[in-house]
Amino acid sequence: MAITLPVNTYTVKVGGSPNKTVFYPQLFRMQNQEVERSINRTIRERNQQLINEQIGNMPSSVEEMIGYYEIKNNQREVLSLSLINYTYHYHAAHGMTYIKSLTFDLRTGRLYQLKDLFKPGSDYVKRLSVLIDKQIKQRNIQLLNGFTAIRPDQDFYIADKTLVIYFQLYEITPYVVGFPMFPISIFDLEDIVDENGPLGRMAAS
Questions:
Q1: Residue 103's beta-bridge partner residues?
Q2: Cα–Cα distance between 125 and 175 in angstroms, integer?
Q3: Which of 101, 128, 158, 200 could form a disulfide bond with 195, CB atoms 3.0-4.6 angstroms apart?
Q4: Which helix (H) or strand (E) holds 8?
Q5: Residue 121, number of CB atoms within 10 A of its CB
Q6: Which DSSP helix (H) or strand (E) runs through 55?
Q7: What is the pTM of this model?
Q8: Strand order, beta sheet including 20-28
Q9: What are phi and psi of 5, to 5 degrees?
């Protein structure tokens, strides 16, 4: 495999007060400026969607909003990151946090959905659901209404040779559990992974 270097990122800050501040990443100095602009635009738009979702979910005013990000993978021309937004509304019982993860092909700027990681026609939903159900039982994770299967567009990010599937607060567990995250080795999925996709690229020696 040809040597590829991590992409350069810098942090953008939005918000005018200490208790209402959101940080998100932008790329710079990429050779392909069109790809750079496309990825940066997508990150900005998804960050704004998170903000809008937080503001629109409650009739009361926002007392605090803190947004930040985590870079999960920045190698082999695969960028995977998570945008995290915590917001507390006036008189709410507690604040609410959402996480939105984005995985890009740095060659083309393509934003991947979960289905794009696997071979066409493969039953990735069933395979991942079985592995997650096993982890739920092993880790004795408290559920709200049991677990049957992931959504075809379930939230995920890539971290080196691991695919992490996760659920939002209240999606399958009580608030106190936090974000249920399920790391799955890509080598447990080799037979259904799209070799030309990001997981195939990460698995290559």
A1: 80
A2: 25
A3: 200
A4: strand 8-17
A5: 7
A6: helix 33-56
A7: 0.94
A8: 8-17, 20-28, 62-75, 78-89, 96-105
A9: -95, 155
Secondary-structure breakdown of the chain: helix, strand, coil percentages, each rounded to the nearest 5:
25, 35, 40
Give the pLDDT of the chain (205 residues) as one tens digit per residue.
567 889 999 999 998 787 899 999 999 999 999 999 999 999 999 999 999 999 886 667 889 999 999 999 999 999 999 999 999 988 888 899 999 999 999 999 999 999 999 999 999 999 999 999 999 999 999 999 999 999 999 999 999 999 999 999 999 999 999 999 999 999 999 999 999 999 999 998 7
CB 131 within 8 A of CB 184: yes
CB atoms within 10 A of CB 129: 18
Nearest one of 117, 115, 37, 41 to 73, comparing CA atoms? 117
State the Cα–Cα distance between residues 136 and 10, nearest whole angstrom.
Answer: 37
Specify the amino acid at residue 155.
D
Phi/psi-derived region of residue 170, left when phi > 0, alpha when psi is between -120 and 50, beta in every other case? left
